[in-house]
Amino acid sequence: MTAVVTAAARAVRPRDAGGDDGDARKDVGGREKAVGAKKRPNLARKSVKFVVESVLEAAENTFSLWSDVKKALRAETHGEHGHQCKRSCVEPLVWTNFLLIVPALMYYLNGFTMACAGVILSSSLSFLYHMYAEAVHWHLVADKIGALAAFASTVPHVAPLLSPIGLMVACFLVCLAFWFKHHQDHNYAVYHSLWHASIFVGQVFLTLHLDFTLLHLFA
Fold first, then answer.
1. From CA 139, how far away is CA 134, in angstroms rounded?
2. What is the dihedral of CA 50, 56, 58, 63, to 10 degrees?
3. From CA 217, how far away is CA 219, in angstroms rounded?
4. Measuring CA to CA, which residue among 213, 157, 206 is closest to residue 177?
5. How big is the CA angle at 41 (ends 37 and 43), to the nearest 5 degrees?
6. pLDDT tens digits, residue range 22-55?
7. Where is the composition biased (Basic and acidic residues) (predicted)?
8. Same domain as 114, residue 54
């Protein structure tokens, strides 16, 4: 009887182990399915996030490109200081250049032909530069060349005629002119117009020391 019971027990045990193994495999498979089910939503979220970020990046790049295009168009249609590409003659930056005609006439009447030509050249090139709102680079170069020509053709010829006090006044006017120019970044239209006006005053002051001055025209 004991032998029969032992044989029956041995026959039952493998079946139980097999059942346990089957249950374990089912549990593992269930966990894998659960993990896979969790991964699929994560993958979907990552895909959506990637698409959204790509669209936003494309939109940002498009906006940046459009901004660059607008800046390029503005550079073509506006001057260095943000004005439209052509000014009116009634603007101080433009009409103050015509003031130099007066000292140029005085130089001509006193026989200083080169000084007259230098001042007229400077006035004309400065007018050209500001009439087109400082938009053309070679106009700026020409304007600086004209200013140097006016200085070189007038000051060395007239400075020896100045008295010590007159020389001090001339130096003060030069410093005042460059003070206006140095502060032109605060308000370009105002301070650069004052630069023109101070150059005019300085040139008129120099012509007062010539034989035939502006005062003789009204005497």
1. 7
2. -170
3. 6
4. 206
5. 110
6. 555 555 555 555 555 555 556 667 667 666 676 6
7. 13-35
8. no
Q: For residue 102, what are the contacts with CB-CB under 8 A and spacing of at least 6?
A: 200, 204, 214
Using CA atoms, how far residue 35 sits from 27, 42, 43, 47, in Å, is 12, 11, 12, 18
Our count of domains for the chain comes to 2
Asked whether residue 63 is domain-assigned, the answer is yes
73 and 28 within one domain: yes
Residue with tokens 């993990």: 35
Q: What does the block give as tokens for 62?
A: 């498009």
Which range marks the domain in which residue 205 is found? Answer: 92-217
pLDDT digits (tens, 9 = 90+) for 155-193: 998 989 999 999 999 999 999 999 999 999 999 999 999
Are 100 and 163 members of one domain?
Answer: yes
